[in-house]
Amino acid sequence: MHRTVRLKYWLFDHYWWVLSGATALVLAVLLARNEQIATVATVVGALLSVAYFLQKQKLEEMRLFREIFKECNARYDSMNEQLSAIAEKPADSLTSDETARVIDYLNLCGEEYLYYKRGYIEPSVWHAWQNGMKSILEAPSIYAVWVAEKKTGSYYDLPL
Question: Can you spell out the DSSP letters for the chain?
Fold first, then answer.
């Protein structure tokens, strides 16, 4: 995961502590310098604004995550039975429709990975999805399509 995404998740998890510490430090410095109450109030107001912004951003990203999560799971659910049937077939016996269905699945996997790289998918969810992808790729028929497709440079460097 990219450093900025890790920093975002860390900040979302710890922003109250960070802002509380920053507020205490700033107040201590301002009061030690005998700053006017208006300056102190302005700084505290700015820090409270940052807290509000971070809380709002966290909530919006949770809504976006939920939307992406529901859509990706629904798309996977719609192809799950066909993928299971394809997984039972020998590697060199897929029809063009079955190959297209596997490619649709790989496109979904690539999109999920892109959302993860951009920080919209929680790391724990991505790792669960990735484990599922790896188990599906254990089927020789699906793995053969993956090997051929990976050579095209598609799928946003999906690490499977």
Answer: --HHHHHHHHHHHHHHHHHHHHHHHHHHHHHHTT--HHHHHHHHHHHHHHHHHHHHHHHHHHHHHHHHHHHHHHHHHHHHHHHHHHHTS-TT---HHHHHHHHHHHHHHHHHHHHHHTT-S-HHHHHHHHHHHHHHHTSHHHHHHHHHHHTTT-GGG---
